[in-house]
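Hi everyone, sorry if this is the wrong subforum. Our group has a chain we'd like a structural model of before ordering constructs, and none of us has done structure prediction before. Sequence below.
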Amino acid sequence: MSGQDTIRLTRLPNGLTVVTDPMPSVQTVSLGVWVNAGTRHEAEEINGVSHLLEHMAFKGTARRSARAIAEEIEAVGGHLNAYTSREHTAYYAKVLKEDVALAVDLIGDILQNSVLDEEELAREQAVVVQEICQSIDTPDDIVFDHFQATLYPGQAVGRPVLGTADHVRRLSRQSIASYLRDNYSASRMILSAAGNLDHQQVVDLADQHFQALPPDQPLREEATRYIGGDYREERALEQVHLLLGFDGVPYEDPDFYSCSVLSTLLGGGMSSRLFQEVREKRGLAYSIYSFSSSYNDGGVFAVYAGTGADEVAEVIPVICDEIMKVTDGISSDEILRARAQLKASILMSLESTASRCEQAARQLLCYGRLIPVDEVVEKIEAIDASAVERLARRLFVGKPTVAAIGPLAQVEPYDALCARLGFGTVS
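Answer:
Right subforum, don't worry. Here is the predicted structure as C-alpha cells:
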C-alpha cells in the first residue's frame, strides 16, 4: 500500500517474487519472506506443524548453529523474528541499511538449510507445548481458538495455529520436513523489503541466496465453510470472556471496505457505538470491541467483550441491540469519523518500514497485485451510510456464533440470543 511510485517488483526465474519499497530518508531496512502456507494447509494429524516449523527454522542450519543465528543478527544491532497465521507464515528482519546482505543470507539459510535436529526438535516441542498451556491458561486468548473452531468445525481453518499439545508432541522430523518440502516453494513466497535500499541489490541477493527452494507442489487448500454455533466453557474466573460473530467477507468481496468501516464505527474506537454504550454510558466492561477478519474465500465479523459474571446479563442484550440498530440508521458523522480513522491508520503506517514491507507482501499474497494507496483511500471515501447499512443487513441475518468462557450462569441460552438477533429458534 505504498504511496511511492518507486515501488518495484521482480519475479526470479525460479518463481520467487521480490518486491521493494524505497524509503531514502531512513537508515534502516525491514525485509522478510512471506509464505503462502499456514494452518489451513495442514492435514488434521499434523495440526501445528506450520508453527513448529517456524520455531525450528531458527534452531540451526547446515552452516549456522542456533546460537550463531542469534549472534550474527544481534552483532549488527538487528533483529530476526517470525509468525504463523491461518493462511501465511512470515520470517522477517530489521537491520541497518548496510546489513541487508546479511539479513537476506540469514533468512535464505533458515528457510532452505535447516537441519531440523532431533534434539532441538524435542526441546522445541516442549517449548511449544508450554506456549499452548499458557494460551489455555489465558481465557481472553484461548476463547478465540474455541470461537474459530465453532465458526469452522472440522476444517483446517478452524484449528488452532499452535496445534494441540498431543499433536505437537507427535510431530516427527519427517513430517516437518515433508511439510516444508510440499509448501515452501518459490512460487508461494514473497521476498519483501522496505527502507533505504536498492532494488537491484535485493534482487541479486535473493537470486544468490534462494537457489535451493523445493520444486512447486499443488496447493492443497479446502474451501472455508461457515457453520457457526455455540461454545461455552464454565470456569471459575472473575470475568466472562465472550465472542459473538457472523459469517464475514473475503478479501476481494465488493463489501470488504464497507466491512472495515462498519467494524470501526460499531466497535473500533473510543467514539464507537459499543464503547460508548457498554463502557462509557453503562460501565459494564473494560474491554469491548468489534473486528473483521478476512480470508481469500471467507471471513468473520465479530464482537468481543470481557465483563463480570453479573454484568454479562446486561451486556449481551446491549450488544445485540447495537448490532440490530446499525442495520438501519447510521449518521453521516459516524461514517466520516470511521473513514477518517481508517485513512489515518493507512497513511500513518506508511511511515514504518516494517508496515510497508508487510503490506506489500500481504497484498501480493491476498490480491495477487500491489494496490496503490490512492486506490484504497478512494474506495474508503466512497463508502456511505447506505453501503454500511446494506452490508449490516447482509451479515447480521445469518446464524450467529457464540464462544464464552468463565462464570456462565447469567449468559442467556443460545436460542434466546438468536431470537434477539431475529435469527429464530435453532434446533
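For your construct planning: The CA atoms of residues 213 and 258 lie 39 Å apart. Residues 118-136 form the longest helix (19 residues).
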